[in-house]
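Hi support team,

I submitted a single chain yesterday and got back a structure, but I'm not sure I'm reading the token output correctly. Could someone confirm the output below corresponds to the sequence I sent? I've pasted both exactly as they appear in my results page.

Thanks,
R.
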Amino acid sequence: MANNSSKKGSLSNEVEAYLLRKHGSYSLGRLERVFSIVHNDPFKAKAEILRSIESNLSKYNREAVGSKISAIDLSELDSENFPNEFLKWSWKRRPFSLTRKDYKTILQSVKESLFIKGENPSSPVYKFVNDYNFKLSKKHKGEKHFNDCSFFTDASQHIAYGKVVNVQYKPISEKLISIYNKGKSQKERENGIYKPTLYNRSLSITLYVLLDGTYQKSHPVMRYDSSPFNHHNTYYYGDKRRGVYGEVAISPHFHFQNADDDLLCLKKSINSDKVVRWKTGRCNAIDCPHLIDYLLEIDRKPAEEIDRLCKIGDDFNMPFIYFKQRNQYLSVPIKKILKGFMESENKSGNLSGEDREFIAEMMSNFNELYSQSELAIEPTENKIFTKLIKAINFLQYLYDRRKVTTNVRQLEILSNIEIEIADKVFNEIAGIEKSNIQKVNMQTDAKNNSHGEKTDDAFKE
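Hi R., thanks for writing in. Yes, this is the structure output for that exact sequence:
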């Protein structure tokens, strides 16, 4: 009995060391080996590791494990101040561990807009008119943050969601910024944030599930990241995602939270003040090229194979096989989004002739590259991801184009178009239904197009 107790104690210590780790893959490999030696079976070892991490987590947050997503109270959402409270991030360091069943429900959940007082859902996202200011700590000095916050519900499942689009510009060198600003106008100084030699730009779009319908128990379930940094994935023995996601996800990429990663990607730190701090919402990522390959693969599969995969839950923690099973066509209309962007910029008096020429040249270049790729010759019959694939490919193009662009105005245009395209791609993947205002706009556009409206060839889809 003493030996078993001692063994359990040493394994608990190994988990504690793992949670405080500095190197992901190596630390998980060591943990896997230690537990596998005891259990003589890597899969039994994994189950024990997950239980042990849950136990460690429960010591700091008793509500963290077994949280229910089906208990909803919308009363506190009916407040103009709710987004401000949500974005105080008071819940950000409180990790939760959901079940596989929870995540499967979330993946297939249809999320309808829940308008908060003061929200303007018809404005383009890149304008950030729904921006909610929150106080930055001293370590974020000099950073520029813009965000858009919106909320959704799944009435049939009684689940509430929050979505945050956030753009952060982090100074590379205050000295370089000071030198750049000398002699510049106020507008030129403001636009300096788009220069990659002055600021690191990070765009994230995150969907949170509001456990019990309250922002105080928010948990990230999906994220789009576009930053200067790649993501190095961490896999446990036999994880089939390794062949789908790859070892490294270049930028931009998508994160799909899941029950295993809730625990295996969890990290904590204990500073000199002895306070335990958790890094939450960590999980593996899939980049645009890997995601396109996966979408092509499942779009080619026959219906009976898709039914089989859905039955056994072989979804790689992503919702796409369920879209395929329902034959639900996913569309991100690049042309319409670009036209809306140009109309918005024109109304604001920001769209010059040079801007129009740049956007037309950019789209002509993208279309030419796309037409020369293997994606262009992929059969489209009985396929549901064709337009989504093109939009994801366009996101990668926009990111790569920004890396070789030096003109500040062009960088601003590329950044804002990426925000708009990424938001629409995110909504399609996340199952977020279009608002009534968006539906009205779509009907109006369809009516205009039916009257013979001509479209520039550069914007053809």
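A quick pointer for reading it: Confidence is low (pLDDT under 50) at residues 435-456. Let us know if anything else looks off.

Best,
Support desk
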